[in-house]
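Researcher: Next entry in the queue.
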Amino acid sequence: MTPLSAVEVSRRGQEVLALIERFPKPVMAAVGGFALGGGCELAMACHLRIASSNARFGLPEVTLGIVPGYGGTIRLARIVGLGRALEMTLTGDMIDAATAERFGLVSRVVERAELLEAAVALMRRITKNAPVALRFALESIYSALDSAEADAHAFESSLFGVLAATGDMREGMDAFLERREANFQGR
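Model: Structure for this entry, 187 residues:
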């Protein structure tokens, strides 16, 4: 690659992963092995990450004379904190699934044979909720990463206000009061 073509590759990768990160429906990574370099960057772009106990994560790019190019340095610092991100990125070392869970890189670790079932079960728990509320929750969380705290609070309040006018809010409240499962319609 030339310097110019490398910049283009990096920017294209960043754009693709940003589309995943900003997707209006929850996206989950179920990592059952190695998530290194671009694979780790892809997993971090997902809203949720779970891993099997044999999974390994890392950004080994410095061992190749490069840096992560698809937003990995930014996302890793936001997810695991600056100190851990610096150590992982500057050493290029891998971490195991238990460490990834302790760092907050994944929300849970399961046995390899249970990974897909656990991922599907978690996604079912999420997607039974009101679709518009899920979309707005994602918007609020990710918008806050790039906003001043006061602006993030104002945006969250405006989303809360819009949701108050939805049929899903009425259905959710009625279902709660009637002690039954809600039947959300996405409106």
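Model: The chain has a mean pLDDT of 95.
Researcher: Noted, moving on.
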